[in-house]
Amino acid sequence: MIKTHLKKRIEMIIEAPLEINIIDLFDELSVKGYTIIPAIFGRGQEGVWRGDGLISGAGQMIVIVSILDPARVEEILSRLYEFMKNRIGIITISDVEVIRDEHF
Amino acid sequence: MIKTHLKKRIEMIIEAPLEINIIDLFDELSVKGYTIIPAIFGRGQEGVWRGDGLISGAGQMIVIVSILDPARVEEILSRLYEFMKNRIGIITISDVEVIRDEHF
Amino acid sequence: MIKTHLKKRIEMIIEAPLEINIIDLFDELSVKGYTIIPAIFGRGQEGVWRGDGLISGAGQMIVIVSILDPARVEEILSRLYEFMKNRIGIITISDVEVIRDEHF
Amino acid sequence: MMDQLLILVLENITSPVVLFFVLGVGASMLRSDLEIPQAAARLLAIYLMLAIGFKGGAAVATTGIELRLITTLISCAILSFVTPVIAYFLLQRISKLPAIDIAAVSAHYGSISVVTLAAAIQALAQLGIEYEGYIVAAAAVMEFPAIISGLWLAHHYTEVKRTSNGGLLRHVFLNGSIVVLVGAFAIGWISGEKGLTEVAPFLVDPFKGVLCLFLLDMGLVAGRGFRDQGQAIGPREIGFGMLMPLISVGLASVFVMFLELSAGGTALIFTLAASASYIAVPAAMRLALPHAKPSIYLTMSLGVTFPFNLTIGIPIYITIAMSFG
Amino acid sequence: MMDQLLILVLENITSPVVLFFVLGVGASMLRSDLEIPQAAARLLAIYLMLAIGFKGGAAVATTGIELRLITTLISCAILSFVTPVIAYFLLQRISKLPAIDIAAVSAHYGSISVVTLAAAIQALAQLGIEYEGYIVAAAAVMEFPAIISGLWLAHHYTEVKRTSNGGLLRHVFLNGSIVVLVGAFAIGWISGEKGLTEVAPFLVDPFKGVLCLFLLDMGLVAGRGFRDQGQAIGPREIGFGMLMPLISVGLASVFVMFLELSAGGTALIFTLAASASYIAVPAAMRLALPHAKPSIYLTMSLGVTFPFNLTIGIPIYITIAMSFG
Amino acid sequence: MMDQLLILVLENITSPVVLFFVLGVGASMLRSDLEIPQAAARLLAIYLMLAIGFKGGAAVATTGIELRLITTLISCAILSFVTPVIAYFLLQRISKLPAIDIAAVSAHYGSISVVTLAAAIQALAQLGIEYEGYIVAAAAVMEFPAIISGLWLAHHYTEVKRTSNGGLLRHVFLNGSIVVLVGAFAIGWISGEKGLTEVAPFLVDPFKGVLCLFLLDMGLVAGRGFRDQGQAIGPREIGFGMLMPLISVGLASVFVMFLELSAGGTALIFTLAASASYIAVPAAMRLALPHAKPSIYLTMSLGVTFPFNLTIGIPIYITIAMSFG
Ligand SMILES: Nc1ncnc2c1ncn2[C@@H]1O[C@H](COP(=O)(O)O)[C@@H](O)[C@H]1O
Ligand SMILES: Nc1ncnc2c1ncn2[C@@H]1O[C@H](COP(=O)(O)O)[C@@H](O)[C@H]1O
Ligand SMILES: Nc1ncnc2c1ncn2[C@@H]1O[C@H](COP(=O)(O)O)[C@@H](O)[C@H]1O
Ligand code: NA
Ligand code: NA
Ligand code: NA
Known about the structure:
Chain A is α+β, with helices and mostly antiparallel strands and 104 residues long. Helices cover 24% and strands 40% of the residues of chain A. Bound molecules: adenosine monophosphate (3 copies) and sodium ion (NA) (3 copies).
């Protein structure tokens, strides 16, 4: 049987112009890896937005996924939470398993 | 330690032309938030499709993600299931944790 | 109450040119369904890439999601792992619930 | 006439427009990674419909509205409504597909393909043959009725229960391609010859080149369809996909006799009749008949009938139309 | 003058450019699935800014740099800085919106809309009226100051605490649309008339046609805004959205008196003053004032003021400018 | 000759084509949010290859097939095969990179860059210098051999074990850019002068303008590469990236002596030899040598050699080619 290791999957939905800030934050925190996925439409407390609605991408939302070692979640999450406090978007955390422990 | 709250993450993969219908359904059910992500290729029981295959986007699939309060899952899921019964696509449910309880 | 069934959700982040190979592998293993989602930016051990950085899509990454029957995970995962061993990318596994058991 | 037809066919299949389609089919059958991004393909499609619509409207502005315009539109609507019924019973004879798929396929053959129309317009331009501007309006009018009769067939001859169609009517009448075609037609009409001159460097001059690029994409899509879904249909269905256009033209020729159109206009009506939808109708069918298989109706319309019309169909229709004059 | 204005308005609202905008609004209000993919819309937007910038630069290369250029740019910068203050106090009177939203809206009205400028340039070309090439540089200069005074208003009159603005300045000064506009202006300047001739078949001839297609998309976006967010604003805000452009033109006319511009140049400065940003400023506001509601400022700028300027505003500004000469 | 070269360089680096590239590099180094959507960039890339291929084919259709065509193609294939070997041993001397990265880099320098070719064609047009149409075919022929010798080097001089290459050959020979280039060349050949006239308003007239826009995007990509991955290479690798093109030209001049090409044709062969691939070869390397670092070979090819060729390389090659005549 393949041995798997428990990690945490953090998924953030944020505004595209903040991408640079999150990346800088991840750099600062030495987050090993992450992936950014586009979103096309959404609704939340601040109402509706859609990716094709703004020519400049200013109102575009993106999904940032990062698989983290559980030991680091607390620290990283608190920083992300602080950054997001006054901003539009959500953060969720879930359990995932991976094969290559050392990769994350 | 940051306190987190348990929520349910619903992920639906459906045909793009049904987007409007699902949004209307979510409105009717007062679902607080959701996000739509594009898909580019897929296979299921009904065979293969690809997003670039149809000029009109008629055959395009999309992924709809919604983080829900567990108390509301039963009701919303049954309505979604009913809508999807005769249609192409899938629904999955998983556990996630969030920080801002009142947001969902 | 709606009865749900436990499945495994496999999520792979790989390079777009390998899409064909993974699809062929899934065909060989008779994987019933999967969906491919685009990614736009990422970082991992091999450094940074971005989807818009290469005109040919050679450096593009994609996310492949497949909901599998738990009984089949072991076999499929070991084949995927073998394929990925020398390549750039990650694989994660998580629990999800579905309604239509026979669909997966 | 046979000679002339052969020459036309030869000229047509060596035109850049058709050759780019062939290039696309070849590339995707060989699994090349060549790909025109979907966003780009949609932009090209919108451009083509906008250009066709605008030019048609501007042409009507010059000639003015006539009785023939009205009678042509009515005839075309009837043609579109009737064709699926014929297609349904013919395909039921020929093929062993489930009734629901037959109904879905039938709707496609009553409706039309704007890109096939574009290729025919290009072929006429090549030959220096004139046509009536309002044929474009006929194209818009022929999109819907087929959907209604196709659905009626499905509901009458199969067990399909009426589902809440999820805004089917809106999808059908407000389908993006129809909105652009009809809207640009109206704007072209209002703007007239003067408006056309202003937008000509964008909408008229590069038209043929853009059509080439778009047909490269259509070829890629059709080739991928064969590869992924080729097994969905057999020789009987392929035969139908090439026979049905000719039957539609036969039917159309009855109507056309009374319409006093120019040879070019007649050729375009034949082309519309012969062409099968792969944009508006598939979208409608996925909503209204979710159990009809897209792999069947798309492969037939895009993989069989479209290439047939593009290569030898159009020259045939032009030849027949000219013998009518 | 009233007669002339009426004729201008009529000619303007029946021009293809405006009609395509109307088509887009109509299509999306009726929930058509017509959609110009975002990637395509951005390409069109970049094209428009590149073309406007390049032509402006090439024009300056022919006329040479003059004192009026400098004084015009300085005047425009001041205009952009002052306008939000007026807008702020006016809107505070008229509407019951929270102060932070009022500040955010104000910043939009001090800044400018390049697409409105493009439509005005097109209208002048239609009427055969000349204008100074450096007006394009004025457009670039007017983008920023409004943001700064808008933020100052927000910080002074509301409880907003200064957040780490997440690279706001970079976002403002290196905003993509400004980089393209200013960069293409500089390149056009360096390349001069000769360079313009070489790229004219791409940047000049098809310009109007591309503008039509882009305005179709703008119409779709504006219509969707009404549908999704129409309830975000009321009649008072709509009134402001149509009144404010006229006040801005009034203010601009004070400056323009000293600038000795041609009638065309004056009309374009009026148009810039009257137009409200929907690209650079919204982006800046989301970063700097995340609690100001995009649904309010976008609906006002894109849903009210843009259509107002596009349809009857531009003819009014041209008429006033011509009476100035 | 030195004078003439200086004038050529100056004229070249102040051409809009190069200036837009510089604008792109500057914008992304300063972290502007300017971005040409990937779908749009791919459309532009396909357009450029289609236009180059079609024009080349149409040119061959007029001149007819000649012996020199065959000998040129064979020479170019050999050139492409040999160059990586020279590059490998040179880079091994100069740099301390792992052998596998050196092999991967080498393959890039044997292959070619179509956009560099496009810029050189544009520069020749500017100077009114003619060239042989079949050079485009040479470009297609030079794409592959370098990949094969690059992989051979990797397998011979490193520990790389042959993996199942995941359809490498298909990726190499059916690479989208090659399919478009060769396909459009063939279609241009079949359609000839007449076909070219029909598509000229799309494929010929706007070519230079589109090239400007595309080079803006190339500049953005190259600048981002520096920013994200600049530290991947050092001064030794940068030196190699500017030296190697000159060595390739030296090698090419041996072949060219026997080919009796026009000065323009010679300049284009030099440009092809000097240019390094950043589309076909990176794609092949990621499949065949997944452990070679893209950050190294892409930064060298796109970040060093491409700008070098674009700015001062092309004028140098034209000057040398003219002294050959
Ligand atoms: N419950 C939710 N489920 C999924 N996505 C959400 C949810 N709430 C918010 N979002 C996403 O996050 C964006 C901003 O949310 P908000 O800050 O609530 O306006 C929305 O536009 C959605 O794309
Ligand atoms: N097991 C699965 N895992 C992931 N995606 C799936 C799965 N099954 C179906 N899908 C997605 O849902 C679409 C429709 O599925 P189906 O209704 O089975 O044809 C497919 O084209 C896939 O994109
Ligand atoms: N920890 C992670 N979380 C999310 N995505 C990751 C992670 N690590 C790697 N990736 C993605 O996988 C790609 C390849 O990773 P690598 O093989 O580590 O270079 C990266 O560019 C990311 O898109
Ligand atoms: Na038909
Ligand atoms: Na303004
Ligand atoms: Na080379």
